[in-house]
Amino acid sequence: MPRSNRLEQTFAQLRAEKRPGLVTFTTAGDPDLPRSAEILKALDRAGADVLEIGVPFSDPLADGPVIQRATERALASGGSLRASLAMIATVRPQIKAPMVIFSYANPLLRMGLDAFARQAADAGVDGVLALDLPIEEANAFRETLAASGIDTIFLLSPTTTDARIQRAAELGSGFLYGISRLGVTGARAQVASGAEAMVRRIRAHTTMPIALGFGISSPEHVAEVCAYADAAVVGSALVSMIAEASAKPDLIDRVEGYVRWLKGAGQHAHA
Question: Which of 8, 30, 52, 126 is labelled catalytic?
Fold first, then answer.
């Protein structure tokens, strides 16, 4: 079942309008599945350009404490790959932004790639990033997803070699996800100093859109990153806010307000 290629359309529109893109990351099932679904709708209302949805997994090696805690909360509330797909299917008709699944390879392989690709396509998933899938082993994965009309998104870091960037550009579709520093996820006071050089290195190999993440938490960061990348990814700062407000009745309003703040101020940062 081919997708309408929402990712391609979204990034083409951002480039045409010269707008900074905002990609949000939340964990499926955090703080619980019903509110996680409401959070996705709020992110879309607030103008997030792409929604990244993390599949809770028992061994999240690449994640810092904020997202590890979110994963623990999600698992405790019944979160899983199947539950994540079911939630996406429920909200998809009300959300216009593309939705990308972020997962470690283990849950996808346990479900079986063919079954996963079919269920993800039926749910309306636009792209998948398997965090710990080596690019050398990604060919069959990509072909299986592509047959269901789903983009395979690759992760690039400051230590990724030019040869591997080239391979990711050949195999990947939708966009490339660059991480601006080594180590685990987490919000920082400033954007990593090597981020711009890394994006330029990726650009030498491909015209594919580049979203840059790790440590972004303010409209100033978004504007700074979008001076050279197509989009900024906000993850830990948003997940942290969800954790702090999870017991409060205005959780959904706070999420929406935070993303509007990131988007709105980002638009005028160069004015």
Answer: 52
Catalytic site residue from 30, 44, 49, 63: 63
Residue 136 annotated among the catalytic residues of the structure: no
| Residue 271 included in any domain | no
Decide if 1 is inside a domain. no
Joined together, the tokens standing for residue 71 give 């994963």
Range of the domain at 114: 6-266
How many domains are contained in the chain?
1
- Is 206 inside a domain boundary? yes
pLDDT at 215 over 70: yes
* Residue 152 and residue 173 in contact, taking contact as beta carbons nearer than 8 Å: yes
| CA distances for 220 relative to 44, 61, 89, 146, angstroms | 21, 29, 34, 36
Q: Which residues pair with 103 in a beta bridge?
A: 130
Q: Is the pLDDT of residue 269 over 70?
A: no
63 is catalytic: yes
Let me know if residue 135 belongs to a domain: yes
- Structure confidence at residue 188 as a pLDDT band (50, 70, 90): low
87: amino acid identity, one letter: M
User: Which CATH number goes with the domain that contains 137?
Assistant: 3.20.20.70
